[in-house]
Amino acid sequence: MPERVVFDTNIWISGLLWRGKPYRCLLLARAGIVQPVYCQAMAAELAQKLRQVFGFSENHIRAVLYDLRRVTESVEITGNLHVITDDPDDDKFIECALLAGASLIVSGDHHLLDLGEYEGVCILSAAEFVARFAWSEGSIGE
C-alpha cells in the first residue's frame, strides 16, 4: 500500500505551474507511488488561489480539481484542530493528515515546516520529500 501523504496547496500550485520538486511530488502521486489525501477545505483553497492569484478560468479550475480528485483520497475534517497560532489556515493540513492516517505533510509553508512534526506526522519540504526516492536517469520527472 502506498504511503499516505498530504500535499499543501503551495505544492499543488507549484507542481501544476512549474517543473521543480513539487512537480515531482505530483508525479509520484500520479504514478501511484504515494497516496495523497485531501479535504474539501484544501480543494477550496486551491480553487480560490488559482482563481484570484493566477487568473485561472472556472473551466480550468474544474479540470484541475478533477485531476486532483482522480489521484487523491478525500477525508472529512471537523476544523476543530488548533495547532498553528500564527496561521490557523494551516491547521487543515495537519487535521487532514491525522484523520487520514498520513505519515507526511509536504509543504513550502514555514509555519508547517518550522513545526517539523506533529503527533507522528512528519512535515517535509518538497526537496526533502523527493530526496526519499531514488531519482535515477530516466525516472519520474527527470
List the helices and strands and how they pair.
Layout: E1 3-7, H1 9-17, H2 21-30, E2 34-38, H3 40-52, H4 58-71, E3 73-74, H5 91-100, E4 104-106, H6 110-115, E5 117-118, E6 121-124, H7 126-131
Parallel strand pairs: 1-2, 1-4, 2-3, 4-6
Antiparallel strand pairs: 5-6
Helix pairs in contact: 1-2, 1-3, 3-4
Would you write up a description of this structure?
It is built from seven helices and six strands; from the N terminus they run βααβααβαβαββα. By secondary structure, the chain is of the alpha/beta class. The chain has one domain (3-131): 3-Layer(aba) Sandwich (Rossmann fold). Strands 3-2-1-4-6-5 form a six-stranded mixed β-sheet, sandwiched between helices. The longest helix has 14 residues, at 58-71. The protein starts with a strand and ends in an 11-residue tail after the last helix. The mean pLDDT is 93.
Q: How are the strands ordered across the major sheet?
A: 3-2-1-4-6-5
> What is the general shape?
globular
Q: Averaged pLDDT, please?
A: 93
CATH architecture: 3-Layer(aba) Sandwich
For the secondary structure, the number of strands is 6
CATH superfamily: 5'-nuclease
CA-CA gap between termini: 25 Å
- How many structural units, i.e. domains? 1
Report the helical percentage: 40-55%
- The DSSP helix count reads 7
Order of helices and strands: EHHEHHEHEHEEH
